[in-house]
Amino acid sequence: MSFDTDELRDDCLTTFHIVLSVTTRRLRWIYLRSNKWLHYLNMPLNGAAVETGLKHNGEKNGISQNSSNHQPHRMTYEEEFSQNDPEVNNLDADIRYPDGSVRLRNPNIELMDQDILYHLALGSGSHDLVEMFGDVKFVCMGGTPKRMEQFAYNIMAEIGHKLPCGTTLQDISHFSYRYSMYKVGPVLSISHGMGIPSVGILLHEVIKLMYHAKVRDPVFFRIGTCGGIGHEGGTVIISEEVVDGALRNVLELTVLGKTLQRPAKLDRRLARELKAMGDPEDPYDTVTGKTMCTYDFYEGQGRLDGAFCDFTENDKMEYLESIHKSGVVNIEMESLAFAALTHHAGIKAAVICVTLLDRLKGDQVLAPKEVLDEWQQRPTKLVSRHIKRYLQMKGRLSLDGHGSIAVKSPRRFKLVQQESETYD
Asked: Residue 148's closest CA among 94, 120, 179, 190?
């Protein structure tokens, strides 16, 4: 009978880490119960600060965060870009840890041995998430894997990011078969699929990823397409406000049989900064306004060309003209969840879309494919300018390396792959 010493050693180390992790989390749980645990459970829904286990010296839940991978910035992103904005500063005081790190509004995560991000094919115990994602500053999301892969290559050229010779960008979430994710230096490029449910699932896991990776002050962007209301195809629209089909700026959820409403708020200062990135020589308009988010592409958006339609052309036009008068400039299907979840997590976020048609003039997209392809590059250019400007200010252009996978436990790594492949 023979033994594989490497495998035996790995098993012993894995067992040791599991025992140590469980013990640490149990002690942390006892600490939380004895130190204002009720504050954690009774947090208001508008994003009030977590007081549980929070110390002024940068410690969270009694555990020091001042490791080599988690040093607080001298000046946070918000301090650089928003130090003279009272609205933003008041918001920061309510929803941020002192060092800007992302916090979760879920005490259960602290007690878990491993948090598996099923739809990203990542895990807090299987992957070294701090090593892989700790330097992330910007998370850019868009509908399709192809579009976000293309954005990753575009931003790589814009910021001068260089891959090692003989390598290419890697889809980090390949084994999930659901979303695609590429890392280019401090930028994550992720596909979010179509509609509120898809982007909601992704945001839960990406926000947890930011937490496990100890990311500080991340900025989220949704880059997409939309239907214009009074704006021709090719217009870039930056959302200042997001509403649902009934013009309410809340995301309505049913949780444990009860209806819950979460405010859908975007960062208006960030929207103004993006608007300022528009080039006067751009052959298209860049505007800001109110975005309507619906749960459906056809009936929910008043289209006459779906499989079902119980209203007339006059009914449709009356509705579209009424929302246009209320300030709605475009319609899409993800911004409500995107705004509500990022706001609930205390993360700055913006939505930038390009119109594919003016819905006041029709329902179907008739522009040629090559025209649509060029239009879809317009929001990415605006976001790229913003990212490049920030990195220039920080002196972080011409970055080397790429988003490779850092494995903490080979056994758990394989388990996470198998879980993600089979999880429905």
From this structure: 190
Residue with tokens 């009774």: 42
Neighbours of 49 (CB within 10 A): 16
SS3 56: coil
d(C-alpha 109, C-alpha 126), whole Å: 16
Strand 63-64 with 59-60, pairing: antiparallel
Element (H, E) at 20: helix 5-34
Look at residues 337, 335, 365 and name the one whose alpha carbon lies nearest to residue 352: 335
Per DSSP bridges, beta strands 286-293 and 236-243 are parallel
> For residue 149, what is the DSSP state?
H
DSSP annotation string for 68-120: TT-PPPSS-HHHHHHTT-HHHHHHHHHH--TT-B---S-GGGGG-S--EEGGG
- The Cα 189–Cα 206 span in angstroms is 11
Q: Which of 417, 380, 335, 4 is nearest to 156 (CA)?
A: 380
Residue positions forming the annotated binding site for phosphate: 178, 222-225
Name the binding residues: 178, 222-225, 301, 303
Binding site as annotated, residues for substrate:
301, 303
Helices (H) and strands (E) in the chain, counts: 12, 14
Contact 213, 71 (CB under 8 A): no
H-assigned helices in 306-400: 313-325, 335-345, 369-394
Q: Name the CA radius of gyration of the chain, rounded.
A: 23
In this predicted structure, what is the pLDDT of residue 102? 87
Is residue 152 a contact partner of residue 140, using CB atoms and an 8 Å limit? Answer: no
Q: What is the largest CA-CA distance in the chain?
A: 82
Which residues fall within 8 angstroms of residue 25, CB to CB, at 6 or more apart? 110, 111, 112, 113
List of residues 6+ apart from 31 with CB closer than 8 A: 53, 61, 62
Mean pLDDT by 10 residues, the chain (424 residues): 59 60 56 43 37 36 38 42 47 63 89 92 92 96 95 94 85 91 96 97 97 95 98 98 97 96 97 95 96 96 96 97 98 98 96 98 96 97 95 69 55 65 58
How far apart CA 349 and CA 340 sit, in angstroms, is: 10
pLDDT value at residue 365:
95
